[in-house]
């Protein structure tokens, strides 16, 4: 069965065509600058790469182009081979607790949450509508970043603020990266042959979040009402004292939106190091002795370690810790810095085992009290698997 896994942004559309159940990636690609003058796309398949400019006036045109390319390059012999399209959707509020088949009515309900995810949700919906127009006979499935976290208890998802903020305005913790955390939990649970695992899943990429999972149910996660909360990230601050916002507004004359924009785009690794949001650049500068880069790295590792310790307590002892995403999968330096900061939990890294990138591996020492694994994430595959389950 061939399934398209899609992530539509306001001016982009990323896709992966996956064969299931073999999990083989048949093609992947990116349509960029949709609606702009210099739009273009790249498609990779069978060891080849196509890169073309095209007049992609909207998402439907991009989807039509994608279909044409799949046919012209014999990636699919006919459109009937594409049995389903799975879409990443950022926000399903408290309403959507599972992935589901999309129709006009469901899209209308999802659009109620646009104000909670204004940068992503309208674009995600636009992507679905484009596929509905171009491939009217193919089923579309919505897979949300928020649904996995919907098992959180009130104690965890409420903020200690006036209760009517929650009742009137839906102010609560939603959590994000749910598709990745769910994939990691599934992968490590299958590998260890257990469905009752207590997992601390650390998704550390440009964005980052941790998730405490008990037997497949989320107990807590670090991102909150928006993806700005939690650990320090590439450009995001993570948790800060909210009083800083009006204080900086007064000092600088910025609006609240402008200050929050700086917390989203100019903070984190970038804000502290002054060098880059990319952990590779920060690592290189730190190796050369740049003090701000060293400080940024230490802060980054410490915030993650602090949450791991907190979640170990919340889970009353974790069975396993997993690291994933760009930094977790690739940076042995950051992995070591994090694990070295949770020694109070009896966790120890094995330097030799940690010397690799981009694979599923155990990196903790034999006598580590909690095993630590690197588990590469695959949100596209999780979306395709959900789609297969729902359309079958
Ligand atoms: P996104 O949140 O955009 O999906 P990714 O999961 O792709 O982000 O992670 C991007 C981060 O991963 C960047 O900070 C990048 O520097 C880091 N990264 C990727 N490869 C390496 C590497 N070899 N060493 C250190 N960091 C890496």
Notable traits:
eight-stranded mixed β-sheet, binds adenosine-5'-diphosphate, 392 residues, alpha/beta, six-stranded mixed β-sheet, globular, 14 strands
Dominant shape = globular
Strand content: 15-25%
Spatial strand order of the main sheet = 5-4-3-2-1-6-8-7
Total E-strand runs:
14
Whole-angstrom Rg: 21 Å
Please state the structural category.
Answer: alpha/beta
Distance between the amino and carboxyl termini: 10 Å
Heteromolecules bound: adenosine-5'-diphosphate
Helix content: 25-40%
Largest sheet, in brief, is: 8 strands, mixed
| Mean pLDDT value | 97
- In N-to-C order, the SSE pattern is EEEEEHEEHHEHHHEEEHHHHHEHHEEH
Query: Low-confidence parts, pLDDT < 50 over ≥5 residues?
Result: none
Count of discrete alpha- or pi-helical segments spanning 4 or more residues = 14
What would your notes on this structure say?
The structure is a single chain. By secondary structure, this protein is of the alpha/beta class. The protein is 38% helix and 20% strand. The protein contains 14 helices and 14 strands. It has helices at residues 59-72, 104-111, 121-134, 154-157, 163-169, 178-192, 244-252, 256-265, 268-273, 279-287, 291-314, 325-330, 332-340, 379-391, and strands at residues 2-8, 13-19, 24-32, 40-45, 48-53, 82-89, 100-101, 139-144, 198-204, 208-214, 217-221, 320-324, 361-362, 372-374. The strands form 2 sheets. The chain has an 8-stranded mixed sheet with strand order 5-4-3-2-1-6-8-7, sandwiched between helices. It is globular and about 60 Å long. The N and C termini lie close together (10 Å).
């Amino acid at each position: 069965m061939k399934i398209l896994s899609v992530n539509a942004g306001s001016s982009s559309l990323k896709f992966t065509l996956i064969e299931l159940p073999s999990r083989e990636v048949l093609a992947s690609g990116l349509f960029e600058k949709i609606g702009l003058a210099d739009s273009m796309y790249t498609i990779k398949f069978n060891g080849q790469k196509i890169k073309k400019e095209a007049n992609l006036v909207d998402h439907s045109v991009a989807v039509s182009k994608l279909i044409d390319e799949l046919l012209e390059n014999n990636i699919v012999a006919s459109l009937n081979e594409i049995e389903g399209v799975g879409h990443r959707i950022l926000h399903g509020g408290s309403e959507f607790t599972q992935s589901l088949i999309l129709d006009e009515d469901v899209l209308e309900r999802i659009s109620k949450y646009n104000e909670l995810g204004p940068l992503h949700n309208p674009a995600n919906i636009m992507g679905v509508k484009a596929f509905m127009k171009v491939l009217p006979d193919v089923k579309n499935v919505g897979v949300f970043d928020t649904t996995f976290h919907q098992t959180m208890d009130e104690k965890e998802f409420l903020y200690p603020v006036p209760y009517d903020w929650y009742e009137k305005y839906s102010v609560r913790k939603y959590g994000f990266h749910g598709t990745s955390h769910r994939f990691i939990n599934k992968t490590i649970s299958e590998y260890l042959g257990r469905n009752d695992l207590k997992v601390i899943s650390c998704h550390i990429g440009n964005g980052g979040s941790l998730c405490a999972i008990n037997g497949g149910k989320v107990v807590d996660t670090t991102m909150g009402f928006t993806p700005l909360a939690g650990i320090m990230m590439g450009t995001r601050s993570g948790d800060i004292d909210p009083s800083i916002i009006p204080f900086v507004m007064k000092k600088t004359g910025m609006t609240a939106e402008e200050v929050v924009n700086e917390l989203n785009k100019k903070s984190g690794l970038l804000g502290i190091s002054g060098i880059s949001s990319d952990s590779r650049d920060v690592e290189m500068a730190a190796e050369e002795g740049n003090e701000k880069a060293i400080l940024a790295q230490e802060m980054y590792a410490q915030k993650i370690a602090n949450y791991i310790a907190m979640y170990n307590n919340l889970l009353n002892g974790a069975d396993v810790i997993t690291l994933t995403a760009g930094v977790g999968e690739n940076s042995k330096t950051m992995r070591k810095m994090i694990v070295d900061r949770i020694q109070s939990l009896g966790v120890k890294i094995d330097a030799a085992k940690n010397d690799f990138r981009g694979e599923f591996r155990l990196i903790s020492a034999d006598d580590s009290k909690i095993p630590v694994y690197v588990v590469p994430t695959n949100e596209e595959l999780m979306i395709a698997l959900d789609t297969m389950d729902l359309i079958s």
